[in-house]
User: Which sequence fits this backbone?
């Protein structure tokens, strides 16, 4: 739950959760789930990974969650962030 946490899991059915700002979560196991309620968090998963990332306004208030299934709603093996209700790739400069 600390700032700038980094979490990774490779086992089948792994579950990762983070609440510290600037967290990075990655899952490479089948049927994994990634959830982050942290500001500025990023996630990366393989096909079949469910991802839910909180989205915040510029003044730091949570405005909702962006969710998706990797391989259907967003690309696999790419760092993703929440933006306007969707999971989108993180720019290389972020």
Assistant:
């Amino acid at each position: 739950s600390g700032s700038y946490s980094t979490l990774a899991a490779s086992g089948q059915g792994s579950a990762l959760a983070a609440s510290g700002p600037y967290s990075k979560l990655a899952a490479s196991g089948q049927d994994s789930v990634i959830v982050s309620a942290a500001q500025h968090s990023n996630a990366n998963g393989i096909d079949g990974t469910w991802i839910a990332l909180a989205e915040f306004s510029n003044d730091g208030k949570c405005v909702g969650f962006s969710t998706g299934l990797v391989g259907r709603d967003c690309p696999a093996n790419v760092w993703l962030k929440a933006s306007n209700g969707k999971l989108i790739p993180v720019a290389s400069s972020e």
